[in-house]
Amino acid sequence: MAIYSISDAINSINGILKAINGVINVTKGIINAINGILKGIDGIINSIKGIINAINCIFNATNGIINPINGIANVIYSIFKAIHAIVESIYGIVKAIHSIFNGLKMA
Q1: CA distance linking residue 47 with residue 58, whole number of Å
Q2: Please, what sign has the CA dihedral across residues 42, 46, 47, 49?
Q3: Does residue 4 register a pLDDT over 80?
Q4: How far apart are alpha carbons 75 and 81 in whole angstroms?
Q5: Average pLDDT of the chain to the nearest whole number
Q6: Labelling 47: which of 5, 14, 22, 65 has CA 20 to 30 A away?
Q7: 87, 88, 84, 92: which is closest to 100 by C-alpha?
Q8: Type and span of the H or E element at 67
Q9: Max Cα–Cα distance, the chain, nearest Å
Q10: For 23-69, what is each residue's pLDDT tens digit?
Q11: Is the pTM higher than 0.70?
């Protein structure tokens, strides 16, 4: 009888240890699942960062196109301002010559 009792006790302890091992394995599985979820979230965040970087590159490229055009427009504007200043100077000279002739007529 005692042999069966000791054998039953060992089997019970073995069963308890297997149950504890099962709990540990389930806990490991839960931790691995949580880790997988966190890695997935990290992947989503990295994808969003990539999209933002791509949009930023588009804006930089657009600026790279607009800035030279703006520079060319400023140069053309400066040329027209210079031509306008030359025309006004010529007009001033013509007015001065006209005044001289008017003065000579009166004299």
Answers
A1: 17
A2: positive
A3: no
A4: 10
A5: 93
A6: 65
A7: 92
A8: helix 2-106
A9: 156
A10: 999 999 999 999 999 999 999 999 999 999 999 999 999 999 999 99
A11: no
